[in-house]
Known about the structure:
Elements: H1 2-5, H2 11-28, H3 38-62, E1 66-71, E2 76-78, E3 85-87, E4 93-97, E5 101-102, E6 105-106, E7 110-113, E8 122-128, E9 131-137, E10 144-150
Antiparallel strand pairs: 1-2, 1-7, 2-3, 4-8, 5-6, 8-9, 9-10
Amino acid sequence: MSDEAERGFTLLEMVCVLAIIAMMAAVLLPLIPHQTSRSRLQAYALQTAALLKADRNAAIWRQADVGTLVDAGTRSIRSGATTDMIRIPDDVRFDALLPQTCNRRAALSTISFFASGMSCGGTIALTRLEAGYEIRVNWLTGRIEIVSRSSATN
């Protein structure tokens, strides 16, 4: 009977092993890099398109110009109609093709929407490894669309 008593693990031994594993996880998990996944990249593209659409709708509803600020320096996109802002992570390539002038004025890193629904247009590209999305604003109609692109076309 003494051989059977020595065969298994005691509850105390199991709790000690689990505590050591938990401590190792607490130390090592913050060191693992958190990278933007393809689905998260798509979510950023959808958020950007939604913000642009909201600004366009605000311009139509208010019957006044609304400009969405696209700031490459801070990697952010700010709504001109609300306090909404999207911050693009550092591991995502963030490119913007914006007009230099809009309505005979300097565009100053903005995508402008007018009361008619029109816009001066622009394109925001978000790329991470092999995945990429372009959020395009049509200058004539103000229509916003998301186009998937691969890194092979870059």
